[in-house]
Amino acid sequence: MVRKTRRQRRNKQHTRRRNRRRGGEEPPTIIRFWLNGCGACAASEEAWTQFEKESPIKTLKIESSAIPPEWSEEVKAFPTYIVVVDGKKVAKEQGAITDSAKLKKLAAKGKARRR
């Protein structure tokens, strides 16, 4: 195993801090909240899978029983899509999205907020 030198570690930390000051280094993340047995969730699964393959944006899929308490107020219907940038919600869409192009538009809202 190759260990990094102290200077390399400091440079990496400095780069992270600089990127955060410039608007964040974290790319937008789309979180999909879904319910097992939900017809709309099943209908939108194909578009979600295609979007995950095509898009460089980070994605996260959370089943209804695993929703964190801090997000439970946001999720009132399934499926729910939330775009998060630097830990903050910037966009939300509820209901089935059956076209990956619509998911790309939703992701673009997160990219626009970053700038």
Polypeptide structure, described:
The structure is a single chain. This protein has 115 residues and is an alpha+beta fold. The chain has a single domain, classed as Glutaredoxin, CATH 3.40.30. Helix content is 41%, strand content 22%. It has 3 helices and 4 strands. It has helices spanning 6-21, 39-54, 100-114; strands spanning 29-34, 58-63, 80-85, 88-94. It has a 4-stranded mixed sheet with strand order 2-1-3-4, covered by helices on one side.
Helix/sheet category: alpha+beta
The share of residues in helices is 40-55%
- Count of alpha/pi helices: 3
How do the strands line up in the largest sheet? 2-1-3-4
Give start-end ranges of low-pLDDT stretches: none
User: What overall geometry do the principal axes of the alpha carbons give?
Assistant: elongated
The figure for the number of domains is 1
Task: Please write the CATH class name.
Answer: Alpha Beta
Query: And the CATH topology?
Result: Glutaredoxin
**Whole-Å distance between the termini?**
38 Å
Secondary structure tally: strands: 4
Largest sheet: 4 strands, mixed
CATH architecture descriptor name: 3-Layer(aba) Sandwich
Assess the beta-strand content as a share of residues: 15-25%
Average pLDDT reading: 83
Q: State Rg.
A: 17 Å
